[in-house]
Design a protein that fits this description.
306 residues; 21% strand; 39% helix; Urease, subunit C, domain 1; 3 domains; 11 helices; alpha/beta; 3-stranded parallel sheet
Length: 306
């Protein structure tokens, strides 16, 4: 019984790739696979014969994937997709000679500030049009979810403009875009570094948080005293020993070096007292993901499915 819900069957795929592989392979492979989707959510995936039985007796929209590979959409967790202009010329020259002086002699702008100068005064509609073209290209190549940073504006107006473009395109396009405020990507040439940091902390971050334009991913949020500027505080938790072990492995540091860094931070046990949500990250990646999705489902404003 479908209870009036829309049912979609993608069937007869030559190969169906899943995220449920064995201990030797993170990717599961089903020859002759199908996917049953009910009301926008995947209900089942498996052999075509088995999945077609589950869909029997309902009004089903079908997509014949004969000869094709069906796989989950790609997730791009680090992008700077919202900006003006292009640095292709700088990249082309740097392939042959990556000396910044060579680019300067040729009059080719490079680096972060080249993008800042092309973005900072770009009208919103043009910024949106350029970003939309990039996102559509990403979608056509299989990306369905991405994180998108600001950071090429470095003024209140241009940073907000970038995040507003992300929010609008998230509603208009068939991708999920999660915005990150990267106002600390640098600072404007017209301001002293200290003055820009003051602007960032006292005006830009509260404004971004107040307009709910981005998630603040900040390891030192509580140390900076900014927990009052956000709607809720999420703490991703591991024990001290696990934290030390992971940082040593990730950064190639000695235990004493990691301990010295941690001495300048509030102990994670104390951070838990500030948390509205606690995510235990000591288990598998899938377990952590499950916790995050469960908490996101409790937020009325959050929509994973378009």
């Amino acid at each position: 019984m479908d209870n009036g819900k829309k049912v979609l069957l993608i069937h007869n795929a030559r190969q169906l790739l899943t995220m449920e592989g064995d201990h030797n392979n993170d990717i599961g492979l089903i020859e002759g696979g199908s996917v049953l989707i009910r009301d926008g959510l995947i209900e089942a995936a498996g052999k075509t014969g088995d999945i077609e039985k589950l869909a029997g007796g309902t009004e089903v929209e079908t997509i014949d994937a004969t000869g094709k590979v069906v796989l989950p959409g790609f997730i791009d967790c680090h992008t700077h997709v919202t900006f003006g202009g292009s640095r292709v010329a700088a990249y082309a020259v740097s392939v042959v000679d990556d000396n910044p002086e060579t680019l300067a002699k040729k009059g080719i702008p490079s680096g972060i500030y080249a993008s800042v100068n092309m973005t900072i005064n770009l009208p919103k509609e043009e910024l949106k049009a350029q970003t939309k073209r990039r996102l559509e290209n990403m979608f056509m190549n299989g990306t369905t979810t991405l994180e998108g940073k600001s950071g090429y504006g470095l003024t209140m107006e241009s940073e907000l403009r970038m995040l507003e473009v992300n929010r609008e395109l998230n509603e208009e396009l068939p991708l999920d875009i999660f915005s990150t405020f990267l106002g600390a990507h640098g600072w404007t040439e017209s301001m002293k570094k200290e003055d820009y940091i003051d602007l960032l902390c006292k005006e830009m971050i509260p404004r971004v948080a107040g307009e709910k334009l981005a998630v603040l991913d900040m390891p030192l949020l509580i140390e900076a005293g900014w927990q009052s500027q956000v709607d809720s505080v999420w703490v991703v938790y591991v024990s001290t020993e696990v934290q030390i072990s992971r940082v040593m492995k990730r950064d190639g540091l000695k235990r004493s070096q990691v301990m010295a860094i941690m001495q300048n931070q509030i102990p994670v046990e104390e951070k838990l007292s500030y948390a509205d949500v606690i995510i235990n990250n000591e288990g598998s990646e899938e377990n952590t993901r499950r916790q995050v999705l469960q908490e996101l489902s409790k937020i009325s404003e959050f929509t994973w499915q378009k």
